Amino acid sequence: MTHNYRCDELQQDQNDLRHTQVVAQEDTCLVLPKKGEFKVWNFDTMSQTPLNDPQNKRTPILNYLVDYKDKNKKLKLAICITIYNEGRALFKRTLDSIKRNIDEFKRKNLLEPEEIAVFLLCDGFEKVNEEVLEELKEIFQSELNPYVRKAKISKTIKDAAKHNAELVKKGQEPPLFPDLASYVLYHKYKHDTDETAFTNLVVCIKAQNGGKLSSHLWFFLGFCEYFVPDYVALVDAGTVLDKNAFVEFYIELAANKHVGGVAGFMSSLDDEKDEPSKWYTSLAKAPGISLISAQLYEYTYGHVLDKGFESLTGFIHVLPGAFSGYRYEAMRNIDLFSEYFNSIVSQKTDFSCPQGNRMLAEDRIMCLWIYCSKGKSYSLKYVPTAWAWTDLPNTVPALIGQRRRWLNGTMFALLDTLRNYPLVYKSGHKLGVISFAFNLIYSAISLAASYLGLGLFYASCWLMFSSLTNETDENTTFTAGGALANTFLLSVVGTVYMSLLFKINEEPLRIFLKMMVPLMGVYYLLLWGVVIYFAVSNLKWMAENRETGLILDDSIWLAAFIIVVIASHGVPLLFYPRRTVDVIRGLVSYLFYTPLYVTIMPIYAFCQLDDLSWGTKGAGDHILKGNEKEKKLYQFKDFKIQNVIIWIALNIFVGFGVIRLNELPSTRNQFLLWYGGLFAAIIGIKAIGGTIYIILFRLRRLCCQSRRIRRIQERERSRRARGAGPVQTEVEVPLSNNTGRA
């Protein structure tokens, strides 16, 4: 029920707050006893009432919820914005970019504003930036007074907990999520660009912080189960969308009923100009090597090769929660929520450390269950023409903190995917079973190579530096080549030691990284120089001996493998020629920060397996609950130590074993050939698959996009003519305007 505070109560609660004026309170406190079944929380009687109870004050949000059911409306697209402690500017540019997308939906005669709703999920009053609450006050025209809510919130939670305990004693059913009561508001947000365009904005401010996963719980189990939209889209506060981003998602989903989820291209924002980065602004900001440039290259390379290759097989391992879209039917068709929301719904505290790390990659779990939906043949696709820009970590500690969660979650989620491979046989896939198997085999080989990467890399350094200095003696421990290789070994030992003792937010580790990252960056640039030297010298040897009829030596194959790897890193230039400056400068930065990506990040992640926090998005202590928290933490630490020891031992065995095997007459000089072939195969397969997918996507777009849009428009007009939703005006949009970014 709506809060109806008396003036004296309001004044008392705001003695130490700034805004003391009495304003109309137009929000409603909702609880979620069951999926899709909201109840109004009455603070006077400490009870729950149905939404349509006549005693409830008909606030705008209650009118919106009740009228939706009474008038049999249809919601086509539900957009979820999750916000933690981002500032006002980040929130506004995200909301403004969504408004531009809604304008494009209307202009292109695809969806009417009434068929779209935006749900802002705020993760607790105490965590949400006060500037955002002030912005919401302006949007809702003083209908929201956050200071009153902050003053009342602690008492509200305590009263609710007591009430739930009393319900349990009486044998009654308490709310499913008593600690996630939320204040919900609704506003029809008019657009300045078009008087007929508006945004259905629903703001859900959770009573207390529960993490991003609990925000998604409110969105999926609450609002989506209530409205049952055709499609849903996820975006983080601070992400800026191209005006056609969600339009491209919608076209891909609406044109093919077998597409269960989509992801787009993400890049970086220009921090100073608060706009998507252009080649000239980024060049002016960072003319040399920079961490942002390295990430820009990583994102470009990853989207073209990783997402492209996975899309060709039909299964993308992860659709990022910061920018993705889903067919809601695909999510309702499976037992997703028991897996995706397992840590919240079940309230279990007996999960293991691997299960806890798997929970850090909940979006990967969602992708697996969608692809393996029983009796369905859903695929997951990358949409290169859907663009978004987001803020990237601009410091090494911030980036490591983010990637620690990504790496650990990815590893355990992939192991879970491999274990659950038989689920695909219950789906409706036919050829998709084969492509899924190929995808997982490729991923398993990549995971194994990454797991043993330190040992393999150390052996490679030893052999290349020894060959470079012409050291062929059996004992090369104290030679120049051995010393250069042992430099890498010392850096690994130091990083493991510091990562076990300190967390990324502690000063000793930060000082260590400040020294280690640039030193190892120079070391890796030297190593890349050696690699290029090997390639050039072997090509030169082949040219000089062409007329002698000599058969290609193993070194020529090695040179060919090196060329494949280098050429693969240039693939993004084929599809994004306008980003040539960014890609080239980013490649140099990426090579410099290679030790950060392939050495320091994996070491820190493995040494922090017992850390289940969410990196840059706040602590994850809410995952551990109950009286056995300390015992569970000790169990996690034991698991970490055991796995770190096994991991180090295997890498030592592989590294030194390869070096010794290379000295045997029967296997001499074979390791670099086989290792180079494995690495080139991993990169080359991904590059070929990604290239094929992007080419096919662009050909299909060139030939079929206009017809697909017309078919969607005709279907929507037919549906509205039958009375299932608002009737829109007949406006033909030039099909040439439907092209998105290349």
Structure overview:
- The protein is an alpha/beta fold.
- Among the domains are: 1-238, no CATH class; 447-694, no CATH class.
- It contains 25 helices and 13 strands.
- The chain has helices at 7-13, 60-70, 88-107, 130-139, 146-169, 212-227, 245-255, 279-285, 291-313, 328-332, 337-340, 342-345, 353-359, 362-371, 396-419, 431-451, 453-468, 480-501, 507-544, 554-568, 571-575, 580-592, 594-606, 629-662, 671-721; strands at residues 28-34, 37-42, 47-50, 77-83, 116-122, 182-190, 198-206, 231-236, 240-241, 259-270, 275-276, 323-327, 379-390.
- Strands 1, 2, 3, 4, 5, 6, 7, 8, 9, 10, 11, 12 and 13 form a 13-stranded mixed sheet that branches.
- A hairpin with a 7-residue loop joins strand 6 (182-190) and strand 7.
- Helix 8 (279-285) runs parallel beside helix 22 (580-592), helix 13 packs across helix 15 (396-419) and helix 14 (362-371) runs parallel beside helix 15.
- The radius of gyration is 28 Å and the shape is globular.
- The two termini are 50 Å apart.
- The relative contact order is 0.10.
- Mean pLDDT is 78; it is low at 1-25, 271-286, 615-623 and 725-742.
Oligomeric grouping of the chains: single chain
Kindly report how far apart the N and C termini lie.
50 Å
Strand content: 5-15%
Nearest-integer average pLDDT? 78
User: How many DSSP E strands?
Assistant: 13
Shape: globular
